[in-house]
UniProtKB/TrEMBL annotation:
InterPro entries associated with the record: NAD(P)-bd_dom_sf, SDR_fam, SDR_oxidoreductase
Keywords per UniProt: Oxidoreductase
SUPFAM superfamilies registered for this protein in UniProt: NAD(P)-binding Rossmann-fold domains (SSF51735)
Protein name from the UniProt record: SDR family oxidoreductase
Family named by the database record: Belongs to the short-chain dehydrogenases/reductases (SDR) family.
Length: 268
């Protein structure tokens, strides 16, 4: 029985991934900040719930050690995420640090904690959830772009140094996922930008129908499962027709023309 370690499993894509891998016969170590929410998996055999706040370096070390004490781990899925939207001028220091700690440093630190064991075993796979925001850009998402483009590039860079030890590194970039993540994102603004932020948010709301737009968490989890099991020498995967369409358009017209098109679309 193979084992996967997943961060951010209390809802959304993380929860869907737990259930999908479990249904495929995998043992799952499901981590989350609030372990009390782990009762959502109480009906699933071979699912172990552990507490993990990926902004806490010491807890990362202790939780990874606990997970490894339970047996060999084959795949690590870095999924936990936090979103904040708004002009940089309005972002607090706490929001700035939280964005980087959760979306970038958290994945890096979890990966770093597992590498020695994977290297000794000469096998293992890391899968990092990036985003369409790691492939293209939008107004007022600069910090989210910073961390998601960072994860995208970091993952590709890591693939070189890990491959010789039999360790894989992959990314899955979803577009809009029909989960609470978008609605839970923190939106900040300040007066000089308010009209533009309102315009941007109204366009985004019109594009993201919660019942028909983008992909379900279960559909994205299927791409994650594909990446975990296809044994391909491939780093980057795209999940969702919306993500694929935007990325293809950027490649077709080039980054500068794409940037101009996005400005017109979202800001008028």
């Amino acid at each position: 029985m193979k084992t996967i370690f997943i961060t951010g499993t209390s809802s959304g894509l993380g929860s869907a991934a737990v259930r999908l891998f479990h249904s495929k016969g995998w043992k799952v170590i499901a981590t989350m900040r609030n372990i009390e929410k782990g009762t959502i998996f109480s009906d699933l055999e071979h699912v172990e719930v552990l507490a993990l706040d990926i902004t806490d370096p010491e807890q990362i070390k202790s939780t990874v050690a606990k997970a490894l004490s339970l047996g060999d781990i084959d795949v690590v899925l870095n999924n936990a995420a936090y979103g904040a939207i708004g002009p940089l001028e309005s972002v607090s220091e706490e929001q700035l640090v939280k964005q980087i700690e959760t979306n970038l440093l958290g994945a890096i630190r979890v990966t770093q904690a597992f590498i020695p064991t994977f290297r000794i075993r000469k096998q293992g796979l890391f899968i990092n959830i990036t985003s369409v925001a790691g492939l293209v850009t939008f107004p007022f998402d600069s910090l989210y772009h910073a961390v998601k483009w960072g994860i995208h590039g970091w993952s590709e860079g890591m693939s070189y140094e890990l491959a010789r030890f039999g360790i894989g590194m992959k990314t899955v970039a979803p577009g809009f996922i029909r989960t609470a993540f978008a609605s839970n994102a923190e939106i900040t603004s300040t007066e000089p930008y308010q009209e533009l932020v309102d315009k941007y948010m109204s366009v985004v709301a019109g594009m993201m129908d919660p019942t028909t737009s983008g992909s379900t968490a279960e559909e994205v989890a299927q791409i994650v499962y594909e990446a975990a099991t296809d044994e391909k020498d491939q780093v980057h995967y795209i999940a969702g027709a919306d993500c694929q369409a935007m990325y293809d358009r950027r490649l077709e017209v080039g980054p500068e023309e794409f940037r101009r098109e996005m400005s017109v679309t979202f800001l008028g």
